[in-house]
Amino acid sequence: MLAASRFFIAVCVAVLLVACGRAPTLPKLSPHDVILAFGDSLTHGTGASEATAYPAVLATLSGHTVINAGVPGDTTATGLQRLPAVLDEYKPRLVLLCLGGNDMLRKQPEATTENNLRLLVQTIRSSGAEVVLIAVPEPKLFGGAPDFYARVAKDMKLPLEEQAFNDVLKDNRLKSDPIHANAAGYRVVAERLDAFLKEAGAL
Questions:
Q1: How confident is the model at residue 142 (pLDDT cuts 50, 70, 90)?
Q2: CATH number of 33-200
């Protein structure tokens, strides 16, 4: 009888979560699971110190090891080249993928960037890790995130965080220059990602 009651409660909770649109979309990370932040200068923390880059702040907030694998100037193409070695070195359980800004700055065709993002996701999943895609806004006044981020996320069924950098890079108080955050901005990004990962069920 007790087991049946517990099962009923569990089903009700699951139904409520789905009804609220809050069903977990990522597996729960164990305490020793590694999170890999993979990207360009926005991941590296250009405009702030290593200790105030978003991966370092996220590590403190989440209690997990968060590896900063951000390389300034990285594009989706160069990211594809170095990704396998990084995955092999750190063996992450979850990868926060944030690339595309330099493709836009260099005016790469959107179709090329989108295809490279899909290949990056496939490579990460082939390693056994989960992926969260982080969008960045177009480098122009009031530029929002390009549609290709949403297409990739929808088609490949992965969580998409598309507001953090968009909001930060619209606020002069949170920027070190037109395309990079400052320490306060990276803290906002880390806080948003921490909340996002909790909502998705990973933390």
A1: low
A2: 3.40.50.1110
d(CA 68, CA 94): 13
Q: Is the pTM of this model over 0.85?
A: yes
> Catalytic one among 40, 41, 62, 74?
41
Contacts of 68 (CB under 8 A, 6+ apart): 37, 43, 44, 45, 50, 53, 55, 56
177 belongs to the catalytic site: yes
Element (H, E) at 72: none
Looking at residue 21, its pLDDT comes to 41
Burial (CB count <10 Å: 0-12, 13-18, 19+), residue 94: buried
Tell me, yes or no, if 41 is annotated catalytic. yes
Query: Among the options 62, 64, 180, 194, which is catalytic?
Result: 180
Measured between alpha carbons, how far is 168 from 160 in angstroms, rounded to an integer?
17
Cβ neighbours, 10 Å, residue 163: 15
> Residues 106-126: pLDDT tens digits?
999 999 999 999 999 999 999
User: Nearest-CA neighbor of 185 among 57, 38, 37, 95?
Assistant: 57
180: annotated active-site residue: yes
The number of angstroms, rounded, from the C-alpha of 125 to the middle of its chain's C-alpha atoms is: 14
